[in-house]
Design goal:
The protein is mainly alpha-helical. It contains six helices and no strands. It has one domain.
């Protein structure tokens, strides 16, 4: 009984780490948006915050995102490992988490200068992060639709996919003259990480139910 209780508490803790890191990520972004003067969150991307005061906090936010996704993947894998597409889903989200680890290594472009190689790599990694996350959500949406335990979340997951696609296009494809890159990127992050938090809550509930039954 004690082993079952310890396992349940450990799995619940893992789920809480996913949620708390998402909250801390947005807390850091909000604090930096307030603290740094300049173009503001509509124009300035999240990555650009590293070039202002207390920019090191931006790198910390990326590492927190990677940690949160890692714990999310671990728990998601425990509850979906026997399902078709489980390996594909966890691999795609793994790419997303690895991308957040790499972003601080290749800083974004400084305003007013030509794009260096490291900034081009940074932008490529950001694109891979968005694409892998959206693809992972698509695979899970199909799984959720066909699984009675998850069916309540499949419409929300499908809506998240559509929202992330729309905000990714706003972020990446609109002309720079419109100066809305920051807005599109933030909306994309809010949509994606809110979904992670919601699914994490569901995983915690499933953990408690499974432990209770055992």
């Amino acid at each position: 009984m004690n082993k079952v209780l310890c396992k349940r508490n450990l799995l619940c803790l893992i789920g809480l780490v996913s949620i708390s890191t998402m909250v801390l990520f947005f807390g850091i972004i909000l604090a930096l948006d307030i603290a740094q003067s300049g173009s503001g969150p509509i124009i300035k991307t999240v990555s650009d915050l590293v070039h202002g005061s207390h920019g090191w906090l931006q790198n910390l936010a990326f590492y927190l995102a990677a940690l949160g996704l890692s714990t999310f993947i671990l728990k998601l894998r425990l509850f979906t490992r026997k399902r078709p597409g489980s390996i594909a889903t966890t691999s795609l989200f793994g790419i997303t988490g690895a991308g957040f680890l790499l972003l601080p290594v290749f800083p974004s472009q400084l305003p007013g200068i030509e794009m260096p190689v490291q900034a081009a790599i940074h932008n490529s990694i950001a694109g891979i992060i968005s694409g892998s996350f959206i693809l992972g959500c698509i695979v899970l949406a199909v799984h959720f639709k066909n699984d009675p335990h998850w069916k309540s979340l499949w419409i929300y997951t499908a809506a998240t996919v559509l929202a992330c696609l729309a905000f990714a296009m706003l972020w990446a494809l609109l002309p720079r003259e419109l100066q809305m890159e920051g807005l599109g990127e933030r909306l994309l992050l809010v949509s994606g990480f809110t979904w992670v938090a919601v699914v994490s809550v569901k995983l915690i509930k499933m953990c408690r139910q499974t432990s209770h039954l055992s």
